[in-house]
Amino acid sequence: xxxxxxxxxxxxxxxxxxxxxxxxxxxxxxxxxxxxxxxxxxxxxxxxxxxxxxxxxxxxxxxxxxxxxxxxxxxxxxxxxxxxxxxxxxxxxxxxxxxxxxxxxxxxxxxxxxxxxxxxxxxxxxxxxxxxxxxxxxxxxxxxxxxxxxxxxxxxxxxxxxxxxxxxxxxxxxxxxxxxxxxxxxxxxxxxxxxxxxxxxxxxxxxxxxxxxxxxxxxxxxxxxxxxxxxxxxxxxxxxxxxxxxxxxxxxxxxxxxxxxxxxxxxxxxxxxxxxxxxxxxxxxxxxxxxxxxxxxxxxxxxxxxxxxxxxxxxxxxxxxxxxxxxxxxxxxxxxxxxxxxxxxxxxxxxxxxxxxxxxxxxxxxxxxxxxxxxxxxxxxxxxxxxxxxxxxxxxxxxxxxxxx
Length: 405
Fold this sequence. Notes:
By secondary structure, the chain is α/β, with parallel strands linked by helices.
């Protein structure tokens, strides 16, 4: 059975040429068994007639905040409450700005402000408008609050410009809708902080010490937590992969990571430390590039970095769940249990990085969940699958009265 069967989708259509694509989207949603209610802005009606959406959705189309409702109820509240998912496609820069700042001056923005349903935004606009700092900041604010986004895509726009700003194709928006609605919303109301990626410890202006962490595991956890309704903060070291659409804090060194975590950890419900911070950093950093100068060897003096996990464990708040990672090559369980106890963690995600398909730089992982009383070994799974199982385990570790399932 389709994940959309019986689901109530409220689709907001705003004033852009891409509004014609939303007709196809409505048709696809209805064919998948969803009930679709369309809200059109005044400008949207200039591009597509409401009758088109009414015919495709087999439902009345709402265009006016003060029109007579189908039933005797406040219509924007009724639609806000019935929505399993609220989709804005296309979403113009104007409506993104309104949603970000709580402006409710028409039927669409009023209903968005009144809903508690997940929100999916499909931006569509001129490239320069899309790249403008105001638009990017507004969208970042919405994603920080938990909104999902899809697109925009690059290519030739209706205005003739070439670049990012074209609304995603209906099939891609449909896939995003299915992904959101198939995920359990058992983390709504929870704040989750995830760390990811390596750190870099500077030697001189052009060199640094680092490791092979790609950030893929941490990013997968952040994406999975958001999909399950959590408010997610990602603290990430330098990576080359695309960042998930969550609040993101960029760090470089282990000291940077420590400072970012100390500032934020107290407000979190679940903290998952998938980053791979360096244990040591150069004692001194050369202001100039270190030259070979005919030398056959070079000795470096290193000092220890702050132990981020231990510092958080020492200040752990009642009800918080702390999850750490242990990438090991020997004495796996013994080392994991030492780390679990020494850093006051609730769970360690242990992986043997010597195994093919586990550890750094790949899309799969082979892990064992280690708690003070249990061991749960998983087969080789995608990092997305590991992320979901990890989050489920973390929820089970929470006190019953703290769960939001």
